[in-house]
Each structure stands twice: as structure tokens, then as C-alpha cells.
Amino acid sequence: MRMLNAFLLTATVVSLLTGCTTKGQSTTQLAANFLQRQHITSTTDEVYPPKNAKTVAVFTKEKTPVSAYRIIGVATISKYNMLGLPRPRSTMNEMMKKLAASIGGDGIMNVSNNEEGMEAKVIAFHKILL
């Protein structure tokens, strides 16, 4: 009976997420974001190829981008996992970078925290053609 309930819950989540129209993300990625309690909202019609999360830079008031960029999305992560346990700050930072990389972000900026989670703008650098 437990397996049936788990299967039905999984099937329901997948079917609900199949109807979502998030650009550049597969149904699998949408389901993973739901389970991880994270969300990305694209702010542009352009689709960027995914990047390596290790290359995503974190920009602050002290460290700003030195080249032209475009805001391509807003990433949000819950401070709590599925079980309601608080996530360590380092885990949240890595999750934010992975989420930004998944939509082709080169960096995140304007990171803000509140009682529920963390939010940041995802940026992509402009390509300069010579």
C-alpha cells in the first residue's frame, strides 16, 4: 500500500509538472526543483545553454561584474529541505549556483535572504563580437 501511495504521488507530481511551460528545463529538472524546494523563473525569451556550476560567480556590492550582462532569471531556494530541516548556508550557496547554471547563468547577484529562503538574480554576460 505504501509503494502504491508513493507511486501515485510521484505520478501526480510528474503529470502536473509536465503541463508547466518553463523554458529550457526538462520535466525531470522541474520535478527535481520541486523536490529540492527550489525554483527558477526565466526573465527572457532567449534560451542559454546550461553551464558548469563551478564557473558561476557570486557578485556582491563589493564585487560587481566588470563586463556587460543581462538578467536572465530569478532563482529562489527554500531554507528548509523536504523534511523541514534547515539547510546549511554552504549547501544553499551551492544549490543557488547549480540552479543558475541550469539556465545558462554566468553569475548571481542581488542575493537576498528572508525567513523562508534565498533569492538571487541570474545573469549572463553579453557576447562581444569583433
What does it look like?
Strands 1-3-5-4-2 form a 5-stranded mixed β-sheet. It has helices at 2-18, 27-36, 89-102; strands spanning 38-42, 57-58, 69-78, 107-113, 117-125. The N and C termini lie far apart (63 Å). It has a domain at 37-125: Dodecin subunit-like (2-Layer Sandwich), CATH 3.30.1660. It is globular. The chain contains 3 helices and 5 strands, in the order ααβββαββ. The model is unreliable at 16-22 (pLDDT under 50). α1 (2-18) packs across α2. Helices cover 32% and strands 25% of the residues.
Count the E strands: 5
Supply the number of helical segments.
Answer: 3
Rg computed from alpha carbons, rounded to a whole number of angstroms: 16 Å
SS class: alpha+beta
The general outline is globular
Q: What oligomeric state do the depicted chains represent? A: single chain
SSE string: HHEEEHEE
Distance between the termini: 63 Å
CATH class of the domain at 37-125: Alpha Beta
- SS strand fraction: 25-35%
